[in-house]
Amino acid sequence: MDQKINHAIKNITIFSKKHAELLRKVMTVTDYKKGETIYWEGDAAEKLYFIVSGMVKVFKSADDGKDLVLNYFSTDDLFGELACFGPTNYTFTAEAAKDCKIGVLKQREIELLMLEKSEISIDFIKWMSYMSQYTQIKMRDLLFYGKNGALASTLIRMVHSYGKETENGIQFTTNFTNSDLAQLIGSTRETVNRMLQALKKEGAISYNQGSIVVKDLDYLKTICHCEECPLHICRL
């Protein structure tokens, strides 16, 4: 089993330690309680956010009230949108999935940093590229391979983000409900229930104390036509 599965894949920021420290010096750390909204879709895109601790989910709301979760971000992740990089308004909503400490980076402070330290601009370009690639690949999985493929892809991403190798398989260190999984693939809880039961019967997964255990990762990869994306892209 690949040893990289033994720890969560984090830090989609791609920033060097030196540049990450520069960001920490200009950010204002704010506490958010679980369930609290960090920004709403349609708000002015004037800030980026760095997670000091905790977890954040970013989602899109449909007219019928259903949510499609695009990302779960964890400690050391940078997320958000900024007007100087493109959109003038946030295209998604961000909400604290756990109690969080989040560093807020205002657009003006980022622009000054980029003027003073031009090399940090390269890190921002890399971050934007990875975020774009991540979103494109996730949309591909959702659209091309049906709900089964989308669920298989999501479970693989969970393995890389929250998987821990055990003697019985790869168990998730963070629990996600079937409703959470449904929001990640644009489906219903009932549909996810049926698909998980089918995967259990096929021996691809099992359960341990209510947590999913992946027993046959290769089988999941077959369902979603896995292209073995880099681990910093194949994450929840």
TrEMBL record:
It holds the Pfam family cNMP_binding. Residues 145-218 form the HTH crp-type domain. Keywords: Activator, DNA-binding, Transcription, Transcription regulation. The keyword Transcription applies. It comes from the Bacteria. The keyword Cytoplasm does not apply. PROSITE patterns: CNMP_BINDING_3 (PS50042), HTH_CRP_2 (PS51063). Residues 23-120 form the Cyclic nucleotide-binding domain. This is Crp/Fnr family transcriptional regulator.
